[in-house]
Every structure is written in structure tokens, then in C-alpha cells.
Amino acid sequence: MDSQQLKIFLIMAPQLLVGTCLLLCRRSAASPQVQEPRWMGTCWDAIAFFSVALIFLFVLPDLAYSLSPESEHISYLCSFLGTCSYALFLPRLLRSNAFSFSCGLSPAQLSLGRALLRGALHYLRAAPLLFLADILWLYLLSVLCATGLPLSLEPQELLWELENASPLMLAIIIPITCAVAPFVEEVLFRGGVHRCLKFFWGKWPAALLSSLLFAALHGNWAASFPLFVLSLLLVRVYELEGRLFPCVCLHGLFNLNGVLLTFASR
Question: What tens digit of pLDDT does each residue of 187-206 get?
């Protein structure tokens, strides 16, 4: 075992061991007497909410990129600035009574520290399932690629960017990847897309469609199925907890694990 494999082993082995033990315990991780907040908005609320997300996360970054001078990292900086702007704008937007729904941001009757702890426990439970999904999916893709199908096994572009980033870029990318982006994506996908679809179409169609959308918008074949499984697990956690903070924590730890594995594979 070389040093690279040893580092990956030291990162993954404790997670898989603890996660497997938690799964074998078969104890419910649900908070008592808490339900996922019901979608109370109208169709126009949904259209407005998702339109605002589209503007901040795609339209404005693309516009800023088109007006910026050529630079190696400028596209990522524009995307990160759009994500940070949306994250700052979201709480004000949700408290402004502009929309007739709440996505369960407040950790009511649950301290922030306890919410983070529950999110970490949910992540450890999910780690073996996500690891298995990743291994099986990469094996399937390699088999399909061997048949001549034009599928890519390359990791997400952001992970490649991390390998060559300067210390300043790392100081920008890592906090946004592990904290800001999970917060934004959980409000958007679990607090918005999933609950809206569930209100109109039911639980399972909503979970499947929101997870497909979540995986597709990341735009990477190699990560698509693990991200789909991650989204299904996040839906389950949201319905168990009735709050988004444990989901944000789980999502952030998943992203942090990807960052650590990227550095370990250098």
C-alpha cells in the first residue's frame, strides 16, 4: 500500500466502520414528534422562488463571467459569488413574507449544536451506502465505456480545480463548498423542490424527481448516481428531522469528504 492509498484508507475506514455499526444497530434516528414542514405555497410561489434561485445561481454568474477578463479561475469565482449572494439573500427572502411557506430553516426545539450532531450521525449512517453506490456506479460506467459508449469517468471539475488551486483559491473554495453550497442546495432542493413536488404529486415521485434533478444539475456522469443516492438519503433525513440544519450538515460533510479524498489522491 503506497502513501496515497494509505491516506485514502485512513479517511474512509473509520467512516465505514462506524457507519456500518450504526446501520446494524437498526435504531431510528428520527427526532420525536417532528414532521417535515408542509408546503403551503401556491404555484406562483414556487415559480418565483425557483426563478430567484435561477437568477442568482446561473444567470448572474454567467453574465459576470461574460463581462470579466479571461482568467484561470474566473468562472469558479463567478459561480461562488453567485452562491454566496444567494445564501446571504435567502434568509431575508424567507422572512420577508414574500412567500406563503416556510422550509423549516429554524432549528426550533433543537439547538444548533444538537442539529449539527444529528447531521453528523446521519452522515456516518449514509457513508457505507454512498461508498457502495460510488464503487458500483464506477464499475458499471467502466464496463459501459469498454463497449464504446461515450461516457466520462472524470471526476467533477471542481475536484480537478482543487488539485491546482493556489492557497488563496483554496481559502475561498473550501468554505463555500463545505458550508455555503450545502446550505443553498438544501434550501433549494429539499426545502423547495422536494416539498413542492410532494404537495402536488406525492412522496415517492417527489423524492425521485427532485433527486434526479439534483444529480443532473451537477453535470457529471461519474458522480451522478452517488449524488442521486445522496439526495434520496437527504430527503429521508429531512422527513425524519423536519428541519434543514441536519441535512445541511450531512451534505457539508459529504462535500468535505470529497475534498479530503481529492487531496489524499494527489
Answer: 889 988 898 888 888 889 99
